[in-house]
Amino acid sequence: MSYKKESEIQSCDGWKIVVAKNFREIEAIRPIWEQMQRGESAPSINADIDRYLSVLEAMKEAAQPYVIVLYQDGDPKAMVMGRIETRQITCRIGYATIFKPSLRCLSVVYGGILGQPDENVSAVLVKELMNLLRQRKVGAIFFNYLRTDSNIYKAVSGVPGFWERNHFPTIQQHWETQIPSSSDEMNRLISRKRQRKINRCIRNLEKEYGSLKVECYRQKKDIDVFVRMASQISSFSYQAGLGFRFVYDRLTRSILKQSQRDGWLRAYVLYAGSEPIAFEYGCVIGDRYFAESAAYDARFRVYGPGTILQVKTFEQLTLENSVATYDYGFGDAIYKQQFGNFSWPEASVYIFAHALYPIIINLLYSSVKGLSIGSASLMERLKLTAKIKRWWRNYLLWFSRRSEKKNIKSRSGRNEHVNQ
């Protein structure tokens, strides 16, 4: 097994670092990777080797693999899996994007630090990563939501100097739900009052549009049907106004096909009569379900279709006796708080190179982040947060509908021109 590069740290106090930078080298360390992944108390689907490779295949020349394996006295102690890519560093206040400069980064995937490194191991890893910045191979290193109680987060937060470290990291809770195994456990998860409200919404929805049903798409032949339904639902979601609608691009196609091929895929669509009104897809690996993407048709929001599908998904997963945990993925949200019964704090962190352009980006990014946190705190004290979010989402829904109508008229106009 040969590698293009071994770090200068390799001979220091029994430490050795090997870097895999192509598919062949990554396959060579597969046994180590899979063993470390199995040893994680809260594994991440993003850090699974097959998911990692499928994402890279979809990104093609836009990203290069960069996987670090740290050995001590010949034994693998930790891994860091990332991609070298040009990343847009989005600076936003609330939902509004102020600017998003681009920078060549090493992006460490979510959950992509394996081995549960202690303080010493974390210090060695951060030192190795800092070498990339000093050598100007990248302008920044991005850590996608690290646990704030982890040694690696403390090492990342403490090692870099003032100009290199981004400030005001946003700490969010990562939520999980223990899947109910009986009706009694389901009742403990969802209060009677909330259950009555959900049942009332279901009755009203069925009275207006027909009986509800949930379809679970898992087979290769079903992917096209799910994609069509998800695209339709997403076009009427409030996320569409943010530019986050479901898109069946090369990356999504690669993820869905790999997930189905490995038997992980669970793609749910909620229908009211014949109308698709909400979707969710995720993956079952071992005893965990990893939620990946979800949306509901905001025209039906008075009935709470997202909540209905969430409960129906719990019921579906209960039938799979092997599934014990529903993992919502990184990022906080009200619906996660409502159903989650276990959480831990996480924050995304950048380390910037000590060079003019990266430092300028850091100053702008940290300034906007500080302003955003201050504004959010003020709105919270004034009890305006919920109202502003509701107004903004309604505006986004109106904007996305108007854009959709313009697109339809534009396509219609082109068709008339062609038919003349």
SSE blueprint:
Blueprint: E1 15-20, H1 23-28, H2 30-38, H3 49-59, E2 63-72, E3 75-88, E4 91-93, E5 96-99, E6 102-114, H4 119-134, E7 140-147, H5 151-158, E8 171-178, H6 183-189, H7 192-209, E9 212-217, H8 223-235, H9 250-261, E10 265-272, E11 275-285, E12 288-296, H10 305-319, E13 325-327, H11 334-339, E14 342-352, H12 356-381, H13 385-419
Parallel strand pairs: 6-7, 12-13
Antiparallel strand pairs: 1-2, 2-3, 3-6, 4-5, 7-14, 8-13, 8-14, 9-10, 10-11, 11-12
Helix pairs in contact: 3-9, 4-5
What can you tell me about this protein's structure?
It is a single chain. Helix content is 43%, strand content 27%. By secondary structure, the protein is α+β, with helices and mostly antiparallel strands. The chain folds into two domains: 8-171 and 347-374, Aminopeptidase; 180-323, 3-Layer(aba) Sandwich (Aminopeptidase). The chain has a twelve-stranded mixed β-sheet, with helices on both faces. The protein has a two-stranded antiparallel sheet with strand order 4-5. Helix 4 links the parallel strand 6 and strand 7. Mean pLDDT is 87; it is low at 1-9 and 407-420.
Task: Write a compact overview of the structure shown.
The chain has 420 residues and is of the alpha+beta class. The chain contains 13 helices and 14 strands. It has two domains: 8-171 and 347-374, 3-Layer(aba) Sandwich (Aminopeptidase), CATH 3.40.630; 180-323, Aminopeptidase (3-Layer(aba) Sandwich), CATH 3.40.630.30.
